[in-house]
Amino acid sequence: MNKIISLLMSLAAIVILTACPKVQDVEDIPYEEAKTFIHEELKYLYYWNDEIPDKVDYRNPVEIENFYNSLLVTKDHWSWMQEGKEYISDEMGVSYGTFGASLSQAIKYHNDYDVKVRYVIPNSPFDKAGVTRGWTITHIDGQSKDDLVNSGKITTIFNNSNPSDVHEFVFLDTEGKQQVRNIQSAAVLNMRPALIATIFDGSSYQGLDERVGYFNYLGFKAGNDAFGKPMIDDIKENMQMFKSAGIKKLILDLRYNGGGDSRASDTLVNYLAPKSAIGKTYVTRTHNQDLSKENESFQIKRIIDKSGNDLSLDLDALYIITGPGSASASEMVLNGLMPLMKVEQVGDTTYGKPNGMYVVYYPASKQDYEQYNHNNFAGLEYVFLPIAFYNKNGLGENIPDDGIKPGLGARPDDIYHDFGPQEDNISACLYHIINGKYPQLPQPSRFMFTKSNSSRNANLEPENRDKHYGKFYDVENHFIINNLDN
Q1: pLDDT per position as a tens digit, 391-434
Q2: Of the candidates 225, 255, 317, 463, which lies 20 to 30 Å from 219 by C-alpha distance?
Q3: pLDDT at 469
Q4: Fold of the 190-448+465-482 domain
């Protein structure tokens, strides 16, 4: 009897075991949660969201950045993403292993292949060594400029220099005199967006019978720097300085400003726009149909804020210097102000970026965003910047894809002189203030005394060719969008 019971129990166990399906190993998909999140976000706020598929393979591409890029439409060459730490460093103006200078060449107009210092960041290694805009680099560590450019080594030295290394630079200064400097790059350099804020008068430019403000602004930033000081104060403090000085004519230099945070651009416009513009539209945004239908407030109209105009400079004349480096938010400021006041555009054609992004932080719970809004980014892993809207001014005019072209004020960038009344673009503005017309264009041979027999095939890669160049983004409104259903 016991044998029969044992046999029956064994048979039952076999039946139970064979009846249970085999448990399959669950495939671990790299970055699955982040991939799912950004896929859903793009389906909601991406300007071309109707072209985002409902279902995607989260396994491929494997890396998060490649996966994100695979979702973008072909015509979108603006959207991008960053790791959290990289984004925060950029927003705080922190740069590593740098000399604090930007380089350029005057090829387009002057056919000059010399490598010039375009601008120098205050308190940077170049600044402390006495190097200024307009200086020419002829050699670094005994290597000629041509060899450095053709090999790409000059880019490595300036963008990824080891702070422990000291490099020997041979320059020609703006007078054509050779200058040799041994310069060590900064391990960390904290950069503010305002490069120069000054006032010109008759003592600095002959014939000028009133004070003229000059503001050279490199990027629209509204967060805090590494020391906790708001970046937006660079606008507020300098505009208030101009107002206290009674400035009624201002030269705003945006030729190297690639855009940035809408909070900063809105603040600047509120200072620049005349009191007559109060209540008028500065910019409208066109979103995808789904976002517009869900909440009409995101067909945003940036109205000139009345409280901001209590501090308006109420200018008689505004000159905006532009160039191929003037992108996105810079173009929006120019395009937005033109219907509201007389704006003289001086310099070269702008970059041509008619759209903007919402900043998408990940992780992105309501609690996460509360931390981000209090400048606590310890948990930030990724930042996505998808194109979400196109900008128009109050007259419904777009920013042209090929940039905003100056009229009679068109002239080349003068990288042969430091910023000041002797620099051609600034001088042209001051000349126009006095005479009501622009001076003749500089002759290409005018600056040839600084040339150093450069090879005509040694071309620097312009900064504005970087795929990440040209930013106009909104942080505040994406917080609202991201939490509509929370």
Answers
A1: 999 999 999 999 999 999 999 999 999 999 999 999 999 999 99
A2: 317
A3: 74
A4: 2-enoyl-CoA Hydratase; Chain A, domain 1 (3.90.226)
Task: Please state, in angstroms and as integers, the Cα–Cα distance from residue 447 to each residue in 171, 275, 302, following that order.
Answer: 16, 43, 44
Residue with tokens 């007259």: 395
Q: How far apart are CA 19 and CA 95, in angstroms?
A: 63
Q: What pLDDT digit, counting tens, does each position of 346-368 carry?
A: 999 999 999 999 999 999 999 99
Q: Does domain 97-187+449-455 have CATH number 2.30.42.10?
A: yes
Backbone angles phi, psi at 384, to 5 degrees: -105, 140
Q: What is the pLDDT of residues 94-125, one digit of tens each?
A: 999 999 999 999 999 999 999 999 999 999 99
Q: Which residue has the tokens 């208030």?
A: 240
What are the residues whose beta carbons fall under 8 Å from the beta carbon of 164, sequence distance 6 or more?
184
pLDDT tens profile 224-281:
999 999 999 999 999 999 999 999 999 999 999 999 999 999 999 999 999 888 888 8
Instruction: State pTM to two decimals.
Output: 0.90
318-340 per-position pLDDT tens digit: 999 999 999 999 999 999 999 99
Mean predicted lDDT score pLDDT of the chain? 88
* CA distances (Å), origin 418, targets 140, 254, 343: 22, 16, 24
pLDDT in tens, 426-473: 999 999 999 999 999 998 855 554 455 555 567 887 766 666 677 667
Distance CA 333, CA 427 (A): 22
Per domain, the residue ranges of the chain are: 97-187+449-455, 190-448+465-482
Q: What is the pLDDT of residue 212?
A: 99
Which pLDDT value is given to residue 160?
A: 77
